[in-house]
Specification:
The structure holds two protein chains of two kinds. Chain A has 15 helices and two strands. Chain A is mainly α. Chain A has three domains: 34 residues, no CATH class; 47 residues, no CATH class; 277 residues, no CATH class. Chain A is globular. Chain B is 35% helix and 16% strand. Chain B is elongated and about 90 Å long. Chain B starts with a helix and ends in a 5-residue tail after the last helix. The chains are: A mainly alpha, B alpha+beta.
């Protein structure tokens, strides 16, 4: 195709094609002009640039929404001085962070101290690469996308411990140890609740998981996993574990200001602190993206006649709802205690996730049953399990006369 | 039920969130530089010097007795009395400085002043870029008219004015009773003002 032909057919492609496809085609068109060996490199670079730009902008918007939303929850206006309604506040924050002094403690392990923020952000950026953002809009279509996501996600624990260790500060180390304990504990229910989806779809590819959730029951209810009993229970377990994984309130013990200053962030300032902050928000977006992909139908429209809206808008709309819920939870719940946190992961979420896998198995082998009956039986099993858990959970919290043990 | 409290709490915060958009009772923030809460009458900040009449210098009630200077706990008042050519004290301050960087607004100077010359102000926006000279208030910065005193503390100022009028009357009577000289009614209050007793 000659250059002129490309130019003349470009508007045709942009206007007439499916809106999701023109983004992909635009990239293909740009890459097409390049010599063969460069095509892959430039194509990847464009994808990376778009990802960084989109999620960077989303990070700025998220910080603003968080501050405004928390303000409204606490009956105050939130930042409203920089620009109209305070919309330029993220820029002001960024400038403030960039011009701050970058303090490195004298006793710190300088190399590790410098690397920790980068080690936190890099895996999260990798995790972004397997999430399908829209129809055909997936940076890398890996066959084992779920596995890849959790594999790179586990690297953030390393970054947190690097940050806590390198500062040579007791509060940093305490915060990092809390973070490690918390993230490792909550990774188990997180993965186990994902296992149900993988079992039902029969694939580890996130693209196929989304594809399996296409279509509608009786033409109205989307075939999202959340509308099945195992999906709903799995989604709740997944979200609780996801909040803990992203170190957000009420599971923000690693950064509990009132207890350990700022946890593993104590010795960080200026740009490194900003990068850490960004990494945590990116982690939140990534895990929300995974939750959307696994349980909420990814980029699928909630109603059949809304299919004309570009699919990536659905994805990002759902992401914003997740963001609001995260902020809402942060504005509501107080921080847990360390023993409550551990008890909750091991005594409540883990059994629930395991029972959910059993329910998913029942669901899988009762495909011949009438729909509502199958739904009720599975839901009942989960509810019974929950009630049983609640009983044991509440019993352990009964007030008893306290016994004191003195050192002899 | 497990998780019931969380749901209740989330309902409450959601009510706060949406309520703050339409319910003024929930949205109580005063946007300070643009909006202000009217100050209470008893609000007090740093002291100021009251003067009667129109002349800032002549109308000052202060007679440079230095009682406030001695009583001031953080010692932020500095007074030098006026002297005439012969070195005689003139019952008038030559220098009257208050260092508001050390003043703690305790009001002790006001309570010890026998002449009702020093009173508490309500000015609080005194931030400055120069903490060395702009926080040291001189006589001309401190002198404020009696009308201003009436404006900021109306009840207290009325009582003080009544008390001063009574004292002035008593003083005039005493003068007339002594019969040393034909008493002339006081033209200007502070010049005739003497402590009672």
């Amino acid at each position: 195709m000659t250059f002129m032909a490309m130019i003349t057919c470009l508007p045709h492609m942009l206007l007439l094609a499916n809106p999701d496809e023109w983004l992909v085609r635009l990239k293909q068109t740009i890459v097409h002009w390049l010599p063969g060996p460069w095509q892959f490199v430039i194509s990847s670079l464009i994808t990376i640039a778009v990802l960084i730009a989109v999620f960077g902008a989303l990070f700025a918007v998220a910080t603003l929404i968080e501050r405004k939303g928390l303000g409204r929850i606490q009956n105050r206006p939130g930042p409203n001085r920089v620009g109209p309604y305070g919309v330029l506040q993220p820029m002001a924050d960024a400038v403030k962070m960039l011009i701050k002094e970058d303090v490195v403690p004298r006793a710190a392990d300088r190399v590790v101290h410098f690397l920790a923020p980068l080690v936190l952000v890099a895996p999260v950026m990798l995790a972004f690469s397997v999430i399908p953002y829209g129809q055909g809009l997936v940076p890398i279509n890996l066959d084992a996308g779920v596995l890849f996501f959790f594999a790179v996600g586990a690297a953030s624990e390393l970054a947190v411990f690097m940050a806590g260790w390198s500062g040579h500060n007791k509060y940093s180390l305490l915060g990092a140890m809390r973070a490690i304990a918390q993230m490792i504990s909550y990774e188990i229910p997180l993965v186990l609740s994902t296992v149900t989806v993988v079992m039902m779809v029969g694939s580890l590819s996130l693209v196929q998981i989304v594809a399996a959730q296409g279509g509608y029951w009786w033409g109205v209810i989307p075939r999202w996993n959340i509308f099945a009993p195992w999906g709903l229970a799995g989604f709740v377990v997944f979200m609780i574990a996801a909040i803990a994984e992203s170190n957000r309130s009420p599971f923000d013990l690693p950064e509990g200001e009132s207890e350990i200053i700022a946890g593993f962030l104590t010795e960080y300032s200026g740009f490194k602190y900003a990068v850490f902050f960004m990494g945590e928000y990116f982690g939140m977006f990534a895990i929300s993206g995974l939750a959307i992909t696994l349980f909420l139908g990814g980029w699928h429209a909630p109603l059949p006649y809304l299919g004309w809206v570009p699919s990536f808008l659905w994805f990002f709309g759902k992401l914003f709802i997740f963001l609001f819920v995260f902020i809402w939870l942060r504005g509501t719940l107080p921080r847990l205690r360390m023993d409550q946190l551990m008890n909750y992961a091991w005594k409540c979420l883990l059994p629930l996730a395991l029972i959910n896998i059993g329910v998913a198995v029942i669901w899988r082998f009762t495909a011949g049953w009438p729909g509502p009956l199958r739904w009720l039986v599975c839901a009942l099993l989960i509810v019974l399990a929950f009630v049983w858990l609640e009983k044991t959970w509440m019993k352990s919290r009964e007030l008893k006369p306290r016994t004191y043990h003195y050192a002899s | 039920m497990l998780g019931e409290g969380i749901i209740k709490g989330m309902v409450e915060t959601a009510r706060n969130f949406f309520g703050s958009y339409h319910d003024p009772a929930r949205f109580v923030t005063i946007q300070y530089p643009e909006q202000r809460v009217p100050l209470k009458e008893n609000n007090r900040n740093f002291p100021f010097l009251v003067f009667d009449g129109a002349d800032t210098e002549k109308g000052l009630r202060c007679v440079a007795c230095k009682i406030c200077e001695k009583e001031c706990p953080p010692q932020c008042i500095y007074i030098v009395p006026e002297r005439d050519a012969h070195g005689k004290l003139q019952k008038h301050p030559k220098i009257f400085d208050i260092d508001i960087s050390t003043c703690m607004s305790c009001q002790i100077c006001v309570e010890v002043c026998p002449f009702d010359a020093i009173k508490m102000d309500q000015e609080f926006e005194l931030s400055t870029g120069d903490r060395f000279s702009n926080l040291l208030l001189h006589k001309q910065d401190l002198a404020k008219p009696n009308d201003y005193y009436h404006k900021i503390h109306p009840t207290e100022a009325t009582l003080v004015d009544a008390q001063l009028a009574k004292e002035r009357q008593l003083a005039a009577q005493r003068k007339a009773g002594a019969g040393a000289a034909p008493a002339s009614p006081p033209k200007h209050a502070p010049e005739k003002l003497v402590p009672v007793g």
